[in-house]
Amino acid sequence: MIFDLIIVGSGPAGLTAAIYAKRANKSVLIIEKEAFGGLITHSPKVENYPGFPSISGLDLANTMVDQAMALNVNFDFDEIIKITKEKEIFTLYGNDNRTFEGLSVILATGSTHRKLNLENEDKLVGKGISYCAVCDGPFYAKQDVAIIGGGNSAMQEAILLASYCKSVTMIQNLPCLTGEKDLEEQIKKTPNIKIIYDSVVTCLNGDTNLRSIEILNTTTNEKQLLEFDGIFVAVGHIANNEAFKEYLDLDEQGFIKTDELCHSKLDGLFVAGDCVSKKIRQIVTATSDGAIASLQAIRYLDNLKIN
Ligand SMILES: Cc1cc2nc3c(=O)[nH]c(=O)nc-3n(C[C@H](O)[C@H](O)[C@H](O)COP(=O)(O)OP(=O)(O)OC[C@H]3O[C@@H](n4cnc5c(N)ncnc54)[C@H](O)[C@@H]3O)c2cc1C
């Protein structure tokens, strides 16, 4: 069967795109390599998605999956490792030698937060370790927190957290911050932000919740044990776009450059959500992209039928 639309990735962006396309009467297949619902299934609590004052990420994702299923969106498990286009037909190649054919494609492959790769890290996510201050910062109001990192995202997150946390300690592995100068000036003027330079986190302590972290000064070799209520890891995102790069314009970090209507440089291939080159990666921005990409795909499909 040749689907009208194949969506790679079943996070909020992919699911939104599927809902829009099904409601426009298109046949839709979503292909997912890991877990239906995407990255948000890892979040213990979401409190910034309108309509749901407080909900676990898994429940929110399941609600979206249920909505897509009720519209008869087709779901399949596979990892897409290659895409080709011949005449008007896209062929998507799965990891286990299966192929899928579609008239249009939306890539909604998301991104992965770069981790510290330390013992206990996965176990303590949501229990003192977070990768998103916008998402989880308010849970630490009036408490002592640390930001690991010293680039633009880390600085923006530090300024945000300083507005409602008791103290914010930035732990940067270099002798300086590495983002925009005006952000750096703002950081230095904020009395409850402290910066520790030349230091890396070497240990995360805690059984059920994070208790303390150990840091190592890489110039003096001194170790310190520091107690925080929470730490925010802001050392970058990893894009999941390597497999498709021959059809795409990627930025220096590997994220896909699009126009404001989610077009890629290949006709009929659209891009939505966290895999796009952009500054804000949230559920609402992903669902917004999903709607835009889907409406563009619908328009593309309708034009194909006319021509
Ligand atoms: C712990 C945590 C807490 C968060 N909390 C919040 C919050 O409170 N509020 C908020 O707004 N945001 C939050 N976020 C961010 C939010 O999860 C993301 O912005 C959102 O999920 C992005 O949606 P997406 O659809 O673009 O990508 P994703 O949700 O990342 O989905 C992409 C999907 O594509 C699949 N995929 C990738 N490559 C392939 C391939 N080649 N073949 C098949 N499938 C593929 C992946 O397995 C994944 O399921 C949080 C993130 C984390 C990790």
Description:
Helix 1 packs parallel to helix 2, helix 1 runs parallel beside helix 6 and helix 4 runs parallel beside helix 5. The longest helix is centred in the C-terminal third of the chain and has 24 residues. The strands form four sheets. Strands 1, 2, 3, 4, 5, 6 and 17 form a seven-stranded mixed sheet that branches. A five-stranded parallel sheet has the order 8-15-9-10-11. It folds into two domains: 182 residues, FAD/NAD(P)-binding domain, CATH 3.50.50; 105 residues, 3-Layer(bba) Sandwich (FAD/NAD(P)-binding domain). The chain is elongated. The mean pLDDT is 94. It is built from six helices and 17 strands. With 307 residues, the protein is of the alpha/beta class. It starts with a strand and ends with a helix. Strand 10, helix 5 and strand 11 form a beta-alpha-beta unit. Helices cover 24% and strands 28% of the residues. Flavin-adenine dinucleotide (FAD) binds next to helix 1, strand 2 and helix 6.
Q: Which key terms come to mind for this protein?
A:
2 domains; binds flavin-adenine dinucleotide; FAD/NAD(P)-binding domain; 7-stranded mixed beta sheet; 6 helices; 307 residues; 17 strands; alpha/beta
Which molecules other than protein and nucleic acid are bound?
flavin-adenine dinucleotide
Strand content: 25-35%
Secondary-structure-based class equals: alpha/beta
CATH architecture of the largest domain: 3-Layer(bba) Sandwich
**Average pLDDT across residues?**
94
What CATH calls the topology of the largest domain is: FAD/NAD(P)-binding domain
CATH class of the largest domain: Alpha Beta
Task: State the fourth-level CATH superfamily of the largest domain.
Answer: FAD/NAD(P)-binding domain
Series of H and E elements: EHEHEEEEEEHEHEHEEEEEEEH
Number of helices: 6
Give the low-confidence spans. Answer: none
Distance between the ends = 21 Å
Largest sheet: 7 strands, mixed
Kindly give the count of domains: 2
Shape: elongated
- Total number of strands: 17
> What is the alpha-carbon Rg in Å?
21 Å
